Amino acid sequence: DNNGRAYVAWLARDGYMHLNYSPDNGETWLAPEESIAFGPQNEVLDIAIACDNNYNVNVVWVDDRDVEPNLSTIRYVTIDTTDDSVSPEVRLNTTTMYDTEVKTPMIVNSNGNVIVAWQTDIILDRAIWTDVYYNHSEDNGQMWQVEDASLGFIIHCWFCNKHLVTRPFVLTNRLSLMI
Fold first, then answer.
1. Cα angle at 133 between 129 and 138, to 5 degrees?
2. Which of 13, 77, 101, 115 has its CA 20 to 30 A from that of 146?
3. Closest to 117 measured CA to CA, from 106, 109, 108
4. Total-model pTM
5. What are phi and psi of 91, to 5 degrees?
6. pLDDT tens, position by position, for the chain (179 residues)?
């Protein structure tokens, strides 16, 4: 961040996600036992982080707990590194997704806007149906949109070796206006 802090998050051997930070641009770090442990145990597939200039770290991950096999959810927390507090988890996706992977993690700006985007892939009838969804908050992750939004399907057709767009990507301007 602009205050000279560097942040890193990972899934540790204990099964929890951990956050560590350096107060001096990576010269020194908190001791491993001082890292902030958070989130579910052993259900995390991907982690992405973004920070603001108020010592907050926004964390998003793909989560496989409490859902059917091969279904995933997108979860989010904010960590205030001034007191190591972790906000309650928020589920960001409202759609049922298969084989989900966070591709474009997060964008955070100084106005308190947080945008999380993710890709979904569904294999049907010898084709991969790819869609990109997003959700956003305008108050540093406190409140989110009730439903996530889709940017449109792209179909990767195996037997015809083509990419077909079923809806135009018209929300790009809306996303850029929020940041």
1. 180
2. 101
3. 106
4. 0.77
5. -85, 125
6. 888 889 999 888 888 889 999 999 999 998 888 888 887 766 777 788 888 888 889 988 887 776 666 677 788 999 998 998 999 988 888 776 555 555 555 666 667 788 888 877 766 666 667 778 888 898 888 899 888 887 776 655 555 555 444 444 433 434 443 43
